[in-house]
Amino acid sequence: MKILIVGGAGYIGSHMVLLLRAQSHDVVVLDDLSSGQADAVPNDCLVTGNVGDAALLDRLFTGHRFDAVMHFASFIQVGESVEKPAKYYRNNLVNTIALLDAMVRHGVARFVFSSTAAIFGQPEYTPIDEAHPKQPINPYGRSKWMVEQVLQDYDGAYGLKSVCLRYFNAAGADPEGRIGENHNPESHLIPLLLQVASGRRESAQIFGRDYDTHDGTCIRDYIHIVDLCAAHALALRDLSAGGASAAYNLGNGSGFSVREVIESVRTVTGKPLHIVDGPRRAGDPARLVADAMLARRRLGWTPEYPDLSTIVAHAWNWERKVAGV
Questions:
Q1: Is there a catalytic annotation at residue 140?
Q2: Domains of the chain with CATH codes
Q3: Of 124, 95, 109, which Cα lies nearest the Cα of 61?
Q4: Average pLDDT, the chain
Q5: In terms of Cα–Cα distance, which of 195, 140, 186, 137 is closest to 167?
Q6: Phi and psi (nearest 5°) for 304?
Q7: Which helix (H) or strand (E) holds 10?
Q8: φ, ψ for residue 44 (rounded to 5)?
Q9: How many Å apart are CA 258 and CA 251, to the nearest integer?
Q10: Over 80: is that where the pLDDT of 185 sits?
């Protein structure tokens, strides 16, 4: 198939490009490079531009006969979304609607959307399944939930079929070390710890040790980036076979505490880590763990790299390459 990947130069999008090209799909990447990296994707497939640019979208859809669109172009920083909600609603919601409108104009009716566990808000129970109430507590989560609702309406009105995939904690890197996580600034736990191990960062913080968990630190569900992308490919296959619109939670179904992640990084890298204590962050739940059985059952999805040590090892290989150690 020929697939447009918006935000394809970012962390998840670039790994998606690798997988789809390996599966012999024809890929075009649209990315404004505000957070993505041009060198993360092949030059022959990158178009630099904004997903909200209707004229650019019309040129792309006219010049290519896309079979489907995948969306990875959202801003993702929860704290920033509270401080700058307009930025998040404009990019995550308004620009996505511009993209959907272009799809409708040009008769492209398959869409895979990267959503988030943030649509659920503070969990009422764990593991979190698809039926869990949607009560996002920040503009980031609300912007994603709004898009999910827009997609329901576009299906009913225009027949645009979509699959929304709600991520918990994407982590790891390409097992062959070609690309990896490269956010600036970095906010995710595993790469922050690995930067300490490589010497690129002095220390990392634990935000609270008094949570109601077995060791007092927050528990999160980490999913390998390759497994995440595999779920997208399966979702695309399902839509291409005439599947109905759907939404799935993606995670390993077992959580790891902050302290367990720290110990895994110490073990994998063999490096000392300088860890400092910080206060709890507002809005951090004690546990965020996915119930991903629906994706396993309906899409036939089975994570290939469920072990935390493997996730950390692949991320460490990438960090050593970046740091030159």
A1: yes
A2: 2-170+223-250 (3.40.50.720), 172-220+253-290+304-323 (3.90.25.10)
A3: 109
A4: 95
A5: 140
A6: -85, -30
A7: none
A8: -75, -5
A9: 17
A10: no
